[in-house]
Amino acid sequence: MKFMLFLILFFLLSCGENNSTSYPTCEEYSSSLFLGVVEDGNLEEISGVALSLKNEGILWAHNDSGHTASVYALNSDREIVMELILDGVGQVDWEDISVGPCETGECLFIGDIGDNDGDRDSVGIYVLEEPEVDPDDAFSKVLFKDFELYRFEYKDKPRNAEALAVHPDGNVYIFSKEDDLSTVFKIPEFKKASLTTLEYVGRIETSEKVTAADIHRSGEKLLLMTTVGLYEIEMNIDDSFESQLSGSMVPVQSNIDHGEAAGYDPQTGFIYYSSEASSDDPPLNVLKCQ
Fold first, then answer.
1. Sorting pLDDT into bands at 50, 70 and 90, what band is 279?
2. Is there a contact between 98 and 51 (Cβ–Cβ < 8 Å)?
């Protein structure tokens, strides 16, 4: 009898560890804390950031267009400890990066989705398994060959987009950068050596252009960055993500100058963000739990 009670208790505790609450969320956020700038000439204009679940204390970032096809791992001191160079890749217009689940565990999803002139026939997403990174390591440069490029097109017309997010269920979404709204598309499937049409799933009404996005690892929040602020849309994990895009955009940080990159830390629930406010070294800020 005691053994049966032990098994029941073990089962209940095990189930509790795997629900959405295992990833911390902030009900309210503190005032923005300026962490400092990235004093490294390789990372001049941050266009996307993503916080690692696999490598605690590591933030992934990349440059905007006009730079090498590299992703940088930064530690909590804003020091670059690893540069991943995608072998044989030309950086067209990388705009956002996300970390999310994939078949091999945790992957980096890099969105080559920018199209300021609205004339690209297709856009792309690079997917690579996230490598192990020690935040205390000295700087290393790695030529990375084990990745996949997937190509996508819009059904109606080319669109400029700067925001990409991976849902905990594995679905990947692209958010367009348009006046007064952001049109949201889902990747229906990842097919090698094929051009896949993106699936329209909804739109978000906003008076500001969306420049970055992230989905909390719990699935309970959608983070949207615009050129001037940060917003959240609360999500119910029992409902479909697409059906909740019309939810209220709750402001969490305003007065951001040229907001460009933002993401949740799955370890803490904090929001890290950067902007193009400076023409010198890119700044990093954090919103901690209140």
1. low
2. no
In this structure, the number of other CB atoms found within 10 A of the CB of residue 36 comes to 11
Cα torsion 8, 9, 11, 15: sign: positive
* Pair of tokens at residue 32: 């923005």
Return the amino acid letter for 43.
Answer: L
Q: What is the pLDDT of residues 18-29, one digit of tens each?
A: 344 589 999 999
Q: What is the pTM of this model?
A: 0.91
Backbone angles phi, psi at 274, to 5 degrees: -135, 170
The separation between the first and the last C-alpha atoms of the chain, rounded to the nearest angstrom, is: 46
Whether the CA torsion 84, 89, 92, 98 is positive or negative: it is negative
The domain in which residue 81 lies consists of: 29-287
Instruction: Examine residue 15 and state whether it is found in any structural domain, yes or no.
Output: no
**Could you tell me the sign of the dihedral formed by the alpha carbons of 243, 226, 167, 113, in that order?**
positive
Q: Encode burial over 9-23: b for 16+ CB neighbours within 10 A, e otherwise.
A: eeeeeeeeeeeeeeb
| Cα–Cα dist 126/143, whole Å | 15
pLDDT tens, residue by residue, 137-167: 999 999 999 999 999 999 999 999 999 999 9
Mean pLDDT for 161-176 is 98
CATH code at position 119 = 2.120.10
H or E element, residue 9: helix 2-17
Question: How confident is the model at residue 65, as a pLDDT?
Answer: 83
Number of alpha helices (DSSP H) and beta strands (DSSP E) in the chain? 1, 22
Longest dimension (CA), the chain: 71
Residue 17 lies in a domain: no
Is 70 within the bounds of a domain?
A: yes
Total domains present in the chain: 1
Q: Is residue 20 part of a domain?
A: no
